[in-house]
Amino acid sequence: MRNPPLYFVQPYLKTKKIHPENQETPIEFISDRSIPSSLFYRRNHFPYPKLTSENYRFPITGLVRHPRIFSWNDLKRLPSKTLKVVLECSGNKRSFFEPKTFGEQWEKGAISQGEWRGVPLRTLLEITGIEKEAEEVIVEGYDYGYRSDLDRLYPYARSLPLEKAVHPDTLIAYEYNNEPIPFKHGFPFRLIVPQWYAMASVKWIKQIHITNTAFKGAFQTIDYVYYPSRENDEGAYPVTTMNVNSTIQSPLDMEILNTGRHTIRGIAWTGIGSISNIEVSIYDGETWNKMRIEASPCKSYEWCTWAYEWDVSRKGEYIIKSRAIDSYNRSQPKKPLWNKKGYGYNAEDQVKVLVE
Amino acid sequence: MRNPPLYFVQPYLKTKKIHPENQETPIEFISDRSIPSSLFYRRNHFPYPKLTSENYRFPITGLVRHPRIFSWNDLKRLPSKTLKVVLECSGNKRSFFEPKTFGEQWEKGAISQGEWRGVPLRTLLEITGIEKEAEEVIVEGYDYGYRSDLDRLYPYARSLPLEKAVHPDTLIAYEYNNEPIPFKHGFPFRLIVPQWYAMASVKWIKQIHITNTAFKGAFQTIDYVYYPSRENDEGAYPVTTMNVNSTIQSPLDMEILNTGRHTIRGIAWTGIGSISNIEVSIYDGETWNKMRIEASPCKSYEWCTWAYEWDVSRKGEYIIKSRAIDSYNRSQPKKPLWNKKGYGYNAEDQVKVLVE
C-alpha cells in the first residue's frame, strides 16, 4: 500500500454460525499481541446461558475434605496471577483437512491471545483439601442444550487430570486484558488451562467436582477425541495439549503481488515447552529460511511473531510455507494427521501468491 | 435451535482484505430483502478517495451537444426512480473454482440487494443531448491508485455501451435504502447498472464522458474479462450481465444436523429476464424438487428467496444442491466455466451435511 487509507477500515469477526454463536478472529489482519475482546473468537456449543446472581459463586464438591462455595469476593481476596495465554480451538484450521470433516469450518482464526488474571485452581483446592483417591477435577459450565446425537439436555463439562488441575498456572480467571471477562467469554469465572486446546478452558463455571473415576461426559468421550479412522473408533485418543503450529498472516492465500519487497509475517505457538525455531520457504518447501523471531526467546503459553523480508523480482507463482519447531523438537508435519472430527490440524502452513 | 438465544448475536462482514477494504456480506445469516448498508459487501480496488466539495458535482463531456456540470441540487430536482437491485461482484464465489484462481477469495457473500434511488442517466443525457457518433459512455470514479501490473497511478473507470447507458433503469443513484448512499458505497453519486455484474456500478462518480471509440481502461481490457484459457488470451470476452445463479443459505456446508425437520433455504437471481424455476436436490443431483418461490413471480433485478422443508430420518451424509433457471431458459451448469481471473462462477450450488 503506497497510499494510506483516508477512512477508517476495521476487520470483523468472521461469522461461521449464529445459533449457537461461532465466529472467528480475523487473524490475518491483527498485529496486537493481546487480541481485543471484541475480536476474540467465539466458540459455543449451546445458546448463551442466562446470567443470574447464582453465577457469582460456585461450589467445589466431591473428594475434598471441606466442600465449600467460593464467591466473587473470595476469589478477589485470594492472591491472583496474570498470564498471557494462547487459546486455540482444537478445530482451528479444520476447513483445510482433505477429505473435509464435518463441524464448524474454521479457517485460521479459531485462536486468540491475551492476558487472563485469576486465582490458581490449586489455591482453591488447597483450601478445600483433596482426598487421597482424587484423580480428576470436573468443571461444568452454565451453558447447556441439545446435541444432535443425544436426546436430552446436556451441560458443557470437562474434566482435567488432577496433575493438570493443580498446575500452578491453571487459573480460575475473572479478568481478560484488565477488564472483567466479557460475558461471551465466560463471565464471571472461566477456567484457563494454558497449553491445552481451549475446549478445556470451560466458560461460565457453575461447579467443580473432584472424582476418582474417568469422567464420561460427551465433550470428553464423543467430542474432542481424535478418531484416526473413518470407519471405526480404533486408535482413538483424547485431545489435550496444543500441537506445534504456525500461521502465515501475510501475504494472503491467492493474493496478487507486484515485484519488489514484501513482508511475510505470521505467528507460531506450541502446547509443550516453547517455540525454538521458525522457518519459511518461498519455494514450496524445497529450501527453507530461518526466521528472525521478534520476541526472543519465545515464551511458553504465548505465540511468537515472526517476519521475513522478501525481495522478489521474478514474476510467477510462489508457494510460501511456514513451519515451527518447539523446544521438545516437535515440528509441523508436511501433511496433517487426518482424523474424523477434524481436530489438531497443524500441517506446515502455506499460501500461494502470484507476482506480476 | 430449540432454545432461543438469550443474548444478542449478530453477523459481521467477513473480512477478506483491509487495504484496500474488501469484506463480504455474511449472506448465509441474512434474511432481509434489503441488506442494511452496514452488512453490504465492500469491494475496493484502491484506497478510499478523499471527499471534498468537488464530489458534489460531476461534468458530462465529450460527444454531447451541451456539455454541463450536474450538481447535487440538479440531481435532487430531477424526477427520480427507486429500484430494488441485486449487486453482485463478478468475483463472487471465486474461491470455489478448481483449480483456484488468484484474487480476492470471495465465498458466497460478494452480493447484496437493496433499494437505490436516483435519476436515470438517460435523463441527464437528454439534457446534454448526444452526438450521433456516440457509442460509449465512460464513467470515472474518484478512487485511484497503483495496480500490481501497471507502473502509474490509475483511476477506476468503466464504459457502458450507449444502449445500456440510456436504458431507463441505469441510474445515477444518491440514496440507498432511503438514506444518502454511505460513503463506502459511493457517496454522493454512484452509477447503478441493474443486471450487470457490479464492476459496472461505478462508485464516487467524478466525471462522465461520451466517446465513439472502445474504452481501453485496465478495468475493461485487463480485468473483468473472461479468459477461458490458462495459457493465453484466446477466446477472451468481457464480463457484462450476471449469470443465472442460486445460493443455499441454510444448512451450512459440512454442518451436522439431527434427524427431523430442517428448512433448506436460499436465494436465486439472474441478469436477464427473471427467475422462472428453482430446484433443490437432496441426493447430489440425482433427483430434484421444484421449489416454492416465496415472492411469485420473481421480479427482474431482485433475488428470489426460496425454501424447502426437509424431513430426514435416515442418518448419513447428504449432498444438497440448488439450481435456478431464468425466463431466457438459462440454467446453472453442473460445473463452472473456469476462467483465469475467476469471474462469473455459477455452477449448481451445493452443501454437504451429516445427519446423525
Describe the structure.
2 copies of one chain form a homodimer. By secondary structure, chain A is mostly beta strands. Chain A folds into 2 domains: 14-223, Oxidoreductase, molybdopterin-binding domain (Sulfite Oxidase, Chain A, domain 2, Alpha-Beta Complex); 245-355, Immunoglobulin-like, CATH 2.60.40. The first copy, chain A, is built from 4 helices and 24 strands. Chain A has helices at 72-77, 121-128, 162-165, 218-221, and strands at 14-17, 22-24, 42-43, 57-62, 68-71, 81-88, 111-120, 136-145, 154-161, 171-176, 179-180, 190-192, 205-211, 225-226, 237-238, 245-250, 255-257, 260-269, 275-281, 289-290, 292-293, 304-312, 316-326, 349-355. In chain A, the strands form 6 sheets. The first copy, chain A, has a 5-stranded mixed sheet with strand order 5-4-13-8-9. In chain A, strands 6, 7, 10, 11 and 12 form a 5-stranded antiparallel sheet that branches. In chain A, strand 19 (275-281) and strand 20 form a beta hairpin. The longest helix of chain A has 8 residues, at 121-128. Chain A is globular and about 70 Å long. The two termini of chain A are 16 Å apart. Chains A and B meet through strand 1, strand 17 and strand 24 of A and strand 1, strand 17 and strand 24 of B.
